[in-house]
Amino acid sequence: MGRNNKRRGGGRGGGPRRNKPNEYRSDFLEKSDMDNERFAAYYKAQNIVSNEEWEPLLDALRRPLPTTFRVAGSRQTAQTLNRLIQDTYVPMLSDASFEGEPIPPPVQIPWYPDGLAWQFNVPKKVLRKSPEFKKFHNFLVFETDVGNISRQEAVSMIPPLFLDVLPHHKVMDMCAAPGSKTAQLLEALHANDTATETSIPSGLLLANDSDQKRTHMLIHQSARLPSPALMVTNLDASNYPVIRVPASLRQGEVAPARLKKKKMEQLLFDRILCDVPCSGDGTMRKNLGIWKSWQPMDGNGLHSLQVRILQRGMKMLKEDGRIVYSTCSLNPVENEAVVAEALKLCPGFEIVDVSDRFPNLVRRPGLTAWRPTGDKTVSNTFASFAEYQASLPEGQAAASKMTEGHWPPPDAESLNLPRCMRIYPHLQDTGGFFVAVLEKTKKPEKQPVTAPSTKGKREMEESVDDEVPESKKPRLTDDSTASVELAAPQGASSETTTTVPDASAPGPESAQGAVKAAEAEDENIVADLDKTPEPSKVSSSDFKENPYTFLPSDHTILTNCMSRLSLLPTFPSSNVLVRNPEGDAVRSLYLTNAAVKAVIEHNDYARIRLTSAGTKILSKQEAGKGLDAQFRILGEGLQVVLPYVDPETVMAADVGVLRVLLKAYHPTCAAFEEPFQTKVAERGPGSHIIRIPAGVHRDVTYVHLPSFVKCRSALTLCLCSMDRFRFLSQPPQTITRRAPSHLEIQRIRDADDRQKGQKRHEPAFIRC
Ligand SMILES: C[S@@+](CC[C@H](N)C(=O)[O-])C[C@H]1O[C@@H](n2cnc3c(N)ncnc32)[C@H](O)[C@@H]1O
Fold this sequence. Notes:
Mean pLDDT: 76
Largest sheet: 10 strands, mixed
Subcellular location: Nucleus
CATH architecture of the largest domain: 3-Layer(aba) Sandwich
CATH class of the largest domain: Alpha Beta
InterPro entries: MeTrfase_RsmB-F_NOP2_cat, MeTrfase_RsmB-F_NOP2_dom, Pre-PUA_NSUN2, RCMT, RCMT_NCL1, RsmB/NOL1/NOP2-like_CS, SAM-dependent_MTases_sf
Distance between the termini: 70 Å
Family: Belongs to the class I-like SAM-binding methyltransferase superfamily. RsmB/NOP family.
Structural class: alpha+beta
CATH superfamily of the largest domain: Vaccinia Virus protein VP39
Number of helices: 23
Pfam families: Methyltr_RsmB-F, Pre-PUA_NSUN2
Organism: Hohenbuehelia grisea
CATH topology of the largest domain: Rossmann fold
Number of domains: 4
Bound molecules: S-adenosylmethionine
């Protein structure tokens, strides 16, 4: 097919207003490259839209996605930044054009709360390359780097909104990587943050993904919002183990340490996001490969895993809790069929009517009838499982991987499937998406479980990893055998492929067997929750994480840090952990909240494949000759620690000090003007915080001025402070911004070093 710089043809009338630059595809596909007979035959048979809407739907699917982003960060920062977009960039771009055609400026996404999400109808490539949009693009890149802006597809912003997460909620994100929705959930948990200080929510966010590499992407992505309430695990969500916590955690209490024997219970969640792996045909606008590769067996093959993940989520939900199931697929087999099947298997849940929420979000009701096919060429589709089975040649029915669960249940109407939401690309110029909001209404009646002997119970719990049948073990993508490579499913970047099970993966019947066994296992574990936790032992050879060890709050290191860093007695020193097998405070100290601590203390970290917990706040700094090594507050930890720093010890400074900080890596005291010179010289070597009030200064044109700048020592000032400034020639603006993550700082430092051809060495504390 011709890909030689040809513009592809447009669709025919009825669709939203066509926008010239929006027609400009990065890879110049022909319209004929964006056709797939199987896709058309299948979706026409599903009646996902009316006949008149079919062409507008296809037409929208063929257009590139607009650039969309969300203003993130604390409320204060978000509103300041939003005003900047409104007052500076929208007017600046109101006369922009591309190839002679006027381009409308960015507009607020009408359904996103507080107007904090934006859409710009210019494909990324144009935005990046065209000089007319360069300033705006630079702005987006800078703000994204420091976590103030999240470039996220509009539809991907929807599921977390329906979860209504509050800071005290225990939240689980079952299939979280690469983490754009996790970031949203984390922001909701941190709703009480200010522009310069991170709150410590009493809830927690447990983000999980079965793909190890993607789990690390998730950790990287969430480093933009350093949170003591975040933990990341790397497990198969369909078989997620029971997590035990003290019963006191439910009430948000921290059990008094003197109470030796704590009543234990299973950690249940207030909110769960099930953004499951899917065939991703709603992402065709950006994952163009799907046009060629699409076939219905992808969705058929994923159905069973999707049911098992949703069902496991439902089992881990509190009464009155809420679970959101979402995919970026248009396929009812991956959507309504999954929800219907899970509702059947997990009584006590209902689909919530959310039609009054986000009224500006244009959506269509879930389907109550659909016609699966068992044939990848879509030669035929069937209204019922019985009809499908009857169509199979004699003797082949048993071998078919299709199950009754792929088809609409007889009680589709009474299940309220129309309360599910279908988002179609032609409605509001987005990707395709599916969302269902489920709530747990009542506790399902417990099936009696034959109680094993005490010994049996204990053995089961102690060797939970060993005793799980092979089919129920966490299916990690690395070792999945029953799988096929599917190009770019939902959430995957265009370069990534995710392994998804094919139709030969366990069907609902075997899924049911696994689920029943998991339930029995839950019962056993829950019944024996009061048992003393086992010491951590790594049980999986590919799990290489170091253990998590909390320091006693009277540990010398901690008491030293408290006094040297002027931390107030309110600092939660009992929630500080280290990450090495010896439990020594060798280099870095991490802070968690009480909820995360409770999970770590009462569960084997290797069993739950805990990959990250809390946030790094302090790091050991080697000192110069004759000086002791000290812990310093890390740039990325400053916002978390700041509320616990004695405000009297924060030094006030002005733009002159800032200028010195920006010019030299290691300025000496003499480099500063008075009165700061004397003030800084009076301080002993160590980690100090200085505050520079935001303001516009003509002689130093800087765009982003933080309120707080950290100095590593009175004499050697921390490089982190430099990393937080960005110089732009114009326009001068003043914004209080969050600090970049350590990864971003490292990247900036590395780039800086490369430029200078120098090898970085950490400066030591130096005397004047
Ligand atoms: C649609 S993506 C999630 C996107 C993510 N929620 C976001 O907003 O960035 C689906 C994810 O599920 C993960 N996954 C696949 N099978 C899984 C399983 N059995 N358990 C947990 N995660 C799984 C994939 O690795 C992939 O990262």
